[in-house]
Amino acid sequence: EAIIKGFTMSIQMKKVYNIPEMSSDIMELIIMYAYSQSVPITSGNVEELLSISSQFGIPGLSSLCMDFLESQLSFKFAIHNFEELIGVSEEFLRLDFSELCDIIERDELNVRNESLVFIAVIKWIYHKPSERAPSIERLFPFSGKSEEIEYMRGSVEYKLFIYRVLLKMIHDLSIREAAAQQPRYSIVHSRLPYSILLAIGGWRGGRPTNTIEAYDVRCKDLERRDVYGGNGYVYFVGQFDKVENYNRVHRFDPVKRVWQEVAPMHTRRGFVSIAVNNYLIYAMGGVDGHTCFNMAEHYNAETNQWTLLSSMNERRCDASATTLHGKIYICGGNNGNDCLSTAEVYDPIVDQWSMIAPMTIQRSGMGVIAYKDEVYAVGGFEGENDLKTAEAYNPQTDTWRSVSSMINARSYFGIETMEDLLYVVGGNDDFTTYAKVECYNKESDEWKEGTRNECGPLLTELLCAVWPAQY
Predict the structure, then answer these.
(1) Which of 60, 220, 324, 467 could covalently link to 370 via disulfide, CB atoms 3.0 to 4.6 Å apart?
(2) Is the pTM of this model over 0.85?
(3) Is domain 197-454 in CATH 2.40.50.140, yes or no?
């Protein structure tokens, strides 16, 4: 009886805590560290572990992450993860002058805005101000005559000098953005894009097209151009060319510019939904011209093999899917008769599909994308008309919420996230095919039409982001 009472009391004392913005994998590692004081740190989890350990005050884990970064720090890692490193890495502050220059001068440096490089350099100088102050003139060659540099007279003059430099930088960047002209004192360095959007194929004039366009968010326009070189492949899975459905799969090497056919899917199907998780390509649903499928399979590039998975709860073609926190979400589509509002999630660990809360409206041919810890369902066709509405799903609460509508109603479009914005590209409305591009900012809950001039990040860093509190 005493054991039963104790067990009942322990159940009553248990509480459930929701910790947003933390994946189950990271939580498992946090718990592992709490028990063993050790954890397997990799380049894939170190950034999130470091961020979470700092947020919840776990100095021992932060120290392990910093030790890992110190042992793994390379120029390739630094230039690809520059913004994260300057925010949390003490190792960056310990770089010597030549190492710092080697990073910030590289064309491949991944920064959304050159002002972030400026702020990083200021942080690096303030880490050892007396030792590094003489480096200012070499780091900021646009500052003017050497007699104008008064950093040796004390902290007040030093602060005023940097303040002048910052104002000049903001002024020059504003002129560059407004007039697209080279300013007299330019600190803007044209760098190679770390990520781009590719608009591939689709329909134009009532027939399929093989056109490829590339968009660099740091340039002014979306235009047809040679595909940028980069790592990895672009895969084309199944689909429909207005004559027949395919199970063929091709991949494109953007560096060598070579096409290659790889292992086909198990079944011919068009209007199939695709998602990528843990380096595996998932193909779900689709139609063969007669039957709408609920089957799912994934492709392993290392073995060049497709593997059948558990079937979805509903038959779906013309649906859309995405990956969030290691799980795959598929929404809407058509079951062969009706447009669907239902959605479900796949857990690859247990190979199981589970229904989640339905969307607020049925959508087919819409865009689904993971964006800032939510699953967004945008646009699509509801059975009679194309839609401009959008909604977001929160996995923590299993609820959908409405967000601002797009400017243009559209279906069958491309959707992707890049540099903290959500982009929709092309598609159809009730009458024609679009070339229009829109982007959405979750912070302002606002859509804007166009490319970089309207959608790109603006220079909004404040002076308080540069100066230490004691100043």
Answers:
(1) 324
(2) no
(3) no
